[in-house]
Amino acid sequence: MQTPLTIPVPVLRLPRGPDGLSRGFAPDGRRAPRMPEGPETPGSAGVQESRESQEQQARAALRERYLRSLLAMVGHQVSFTLHEGVHVTAHFGATDLDVANFYVSQLQTPIGVQAEALLRCSDIIAYTFKP
Amino acid sequence: CGGGKKRQDDPRLRSGIARFAAAMAMRQTPLTCSGHTRPVVDLAFSGITPYGYFLISACKDGKPMLRQGDTGDWIGTFLGHKGAVWGATLNKDATKAATAAADFTAKVWDAVSGDELMTLAHKHIVKTVDFTQDSNYLLTGGQDKLLRIYDLNKPEAEPKEISGHTSGIKKALWCSEDKQILSADDKTVRLWDHATMTEVKSLNFNMSVSSMEYIPEGEILVITYGRSIAFHSAVSLDPIKSFEAPATINSASLHPEKEFLVAGGEDFKLYKYDYNSGEELESYKGHFGPIHCVRFSPDGELYASGSEDGTLRLWQTVVGKTYGLWKCVLPEEDSGELAKPKISFPETTEEEL
């Protein structure tokens, strides 16, 4: 039983999780050897940065589109293609933080209808829905 | 329910911070590391390096992960195994990692780049891997009941094999400055001499041995079986002491300064005991499944637990201390506002349910 006045220890933030895009070990990580200090023209560093920031903007835009697509799916009937040619349909409910699991309801499977279920995203090959 | 149960009238709270935390009634805030999609079955810390210390986790999803040890921040995932990873370890300076998997291989990895360096083929599921202090040799053990010693400078050479176990090897560790080997199978723990490759001594148990940890300073061996947490000399295997927990324990770890031990198992809870007296000091709910592994960090400031629920959690040894991502709130700063966490955390909410 809790004593009524307990305060949880404050934290600065939560641990960062996988980025979902790569296997990590970022080249600019703390332990990587530094970039060779070659002759740098005044413009080259700027060009490098603007290409990186363009890429980052593109990544951010794509991610935002994907997240909006997930929002659009809520409450709709979605058809999932799983491994070994299995197809199921369900009403999409929600995804978790890492998009590792989809919460669905009325999952129609070859062996019956499941009122509520969690679909592991690693098992899903493709999915489609009509908004 | 959830969170911690702290004995506020415990006369043995030594540090000022612990006393403050008790006076302020601070509750442990575990840090949850997500990313794995299956049970976490093993974890290991590196030594303390100029870049801090690191943590590797073995998972049944086949994708062991490397994290910054004091924050839990994900650094990278070692990709390559084709089956559940049962064991994972880092060398002392966290430049190399080794993993043991159900795909009948052990792999050695560059822990800075994430690249696979070596695949060591075995004849059955590999369960355990351990580097020597100088990272020159790798010890492996698994379901084929053989201990293997690989010379990492000669990866093409056949490993040296030690036979004698009559059931699958669950854990194998170098000890006594790599001059001896400790190995555990289902019901025995055996001590081997490295040079002669022969058995020196063995211990028999009535119950399945669930875990083993070796503490070089003081040559202590921590063994868990059933509800027991037992401490033996790593040199003679003679028993030192043992404690009983309220539930079946899967893993235990002794604090580097040997003041505390932590243990976790089938009731999903983590227990912290005073090593000298055996008194239970704290216990925490939080995991949603049995705890498979628990280890103190090399500086003893935190301990990590891995669970069937697919998460790793980091716990403070001294609740309320500023360390890593945890931030202490001092009495002088406490205007009532600062004492409240500034951001609401899903973790706190779910544990309050």
TrEMBL record, chain A:
GO terms for molecular function: RNA binding. It comes from the Eukaryota. Belongs to the gemin-7 family. Residues 65-131 form the Sm domain. It is found in: Cytoplasm; Nucleus, Gem; Nucleus, Nucleoplasm. Residues 1-59 are annotated as: Disordered. PANTHER family: GEM-ASSOCIATED PROTEIN 7. The lineage of its organism: Eukaryota, Metazoa, Chordata, Craniata, Vertebrata. This is Gem-associated protein 7. GO terms for cellular component: cytosol; Gemini of Cajal bodies; SMN complex. The keyword Ligase does not apply. Its main location: cytoplasm. Gene3D superfamilies: 2.30.30.100. The keyword Cytoplasm applies. Residues 1-29 form the SUZ-C domain. Keywords: Acetylation, Cytoplasm, mRNA processing, mRNA splicing, Nucleus. The SMN complex catalyzes the assembly of small nuclear ribonucleoproteins (snRNPs), the building blocks of the spliceosome, and thereby plays an important role in the splicing of cellular pre-mRNAs. Most spliceosomal snRNPs contain a common set of Sm proteins SNRPB, SNRPD1, SNRPD2, SNRPD3, SNRPE, SNRPF and SNRPG that assemble in a heptameric protein ring on the Sm site of the small nuclear RNA to form the core snRNP (Sm core). Pfam families: Gemin7. Part of the core SMN complex that contains SMN1, GEMIN2/SIP1, DDX20/GEMIN3, GEMIN4, GEMIN5, GEMIN6, GEMIN7, GEMIN8 and STRAP/UNRIP. Part of the SMN-Sm complex that contains SMN1, GEMIN2/SIP1, DDX20/GEMIN3, GEMIN4, GEMIN5, GEMIN6, GEMIN7, GEMIN8, STRAP/UNRIP and the Sm proteins SNRPB, SNRPD1, SNRPD2, SNRPD3, SNRPE, SNRPF and SNRPG. Interacts with GEMIN6; the interaction is direct. Interacts with STRAP/UNRIP; the interaction is direct. Interacts with GEMIN8; the interaction is direct. Interacts with SNRPB, SNRPD2, SNRPD3 and SNRPE; the interaction is direct. GO terms for biological process: spliceosomal snRNP assembly.
Automatic annotation (TrEMBL), chain B:
Keywords: Kinase, mRNA processing, mRNA splicing, Receptor, Repeat, Transferase, WD repeat. One of its GO terms (biological process) is spliceosomal snRNP assembly. The keyword Repeat applies. PANTHER family: EUKARYOTIC TRANSLATION INITIATION FACTOR 3 SUBUNIT I, SERINE-THREONINE KINASE RECEPTOR-ASSOCIATED PROTEIN. Belongs to the WD repeat STRAP family. GO terms for cellular component: SMN complex. The keyword Protein biosynthesis does not apply. This is Serine-threonine kinase receptor-associated protein. GO terms for molecular function: kinase activity; RNA binding. Transmembrane segments: none annotated. WD repeats lie at residues 78-119, 119-160, 162-202, 284-316.
